[in-house]
Amino acid sequence: MSQSRGRRCFSGVVDSSAAPVHAVPFVSVRPSRAPVVATSTGFERLFVAEYARVTAIAARVLADQAAAEDVAQEVFLDLHRRFGNDPGAQAPAWLHAAAVHRALNAIRSRRRRGAREERFATGVSQSDDPQAAVEVAETRRAIRAALARVPARDATVLALRYSGLSYAETATALGIGVNGVGTRLRRAEARLRKEVGDASL
Fold first, then answer.
1. Is residue 142 part of a domain?
2. What secondary structure does DSSP assign to 181-201, as a single string?
3. C-alpha angle with apex 13: 12 to 14, nearest 5 degrees?
4. What do you get for the CA distance between the two ends of the chain, in Å?
């Protein structure tokens, strides 16, 4: 192929009048290292994984979300003071049981001070029957008061189980076998019902 013919073939592709293209110098690029990410401590991972559950356990006892969050924070601080940044595999169970005990203590403190804060049950709106709302609130108050009067062993199993923990998780928190949870729970329920009934007489 002649040079003139070759120029004609490429004349439609390359515009000879365009600005000259400057050569780009070759740069050797080394693979970049992955960014260094700070590794979270065992305590921080535990906090992220368990904070909501610990709060829910305390809320089941207190029926007060703000107070339950205070309890959860106190429990985590206590855990960190005791065990540091790596509290170990038993830490969740310790947190669950500690949340119940601290929440029960909060109820007892209220009773000693004579502070009675009433809250309507979740889901009861202003458009509902006011009498029904008062009855629900009174029932919840009576149950919380009875929970603070029954033995701590009974109150703990009730709060753990009805805050959403499984039988296995409840057993771990209590340090007992899974088969023993049902028996302890039934006895605790019977004592709570009796306590509520006796208080209403």
1. yes
2. HHHHHHHHHHHHHHHHHHHH-
3. 105
4. 115
Listed in sequence order, the residues at least 6 apart from 129 whose beta carbon sits closer than 8 Å to its beta carbon are none
Encoded tokens for 49: 């994984």
Q: Which CATH number does the domain housing residue 67 bear?
A: 1.20.140
> Domain for residue 196, yes or no?
yes
- The answer to whether position 26 is within a domain reads no
3-state secondary structure of 196: helix
Tallying the residues shown for the chain, one arrives at 201
Q: Encoding tokens for residue 174?
A: 């209590």
Residue 125 token pair: 């709106």
Assigned token pair, 60: 């089941």
Nearest to 81 by CA among 65, 98, 69: 98
Q: What's the burial of 39, exposed, middle or buried (CB within 10 Å: 0-12/13-18/19+)? A: exposed
- Domain total of the chain: 1
Q: pTM score, two decimals?
A: 0.63
Is 84 a member of any domain? yes
- pLDDT of the chain along its 201 residues, tens only? 555 444 444 344 444 444 454 444 444 444 445 444 455 899 999 999 999 999 999 998 888 899 999 999 999 999 999 999 999 999 999 999 999 999 988 887 776 555 444 444 444 444 456 666 666 677 777 888 888 888 989 999 999 988 889 999 999 999 999 999 999 999 999 999 998 876 554
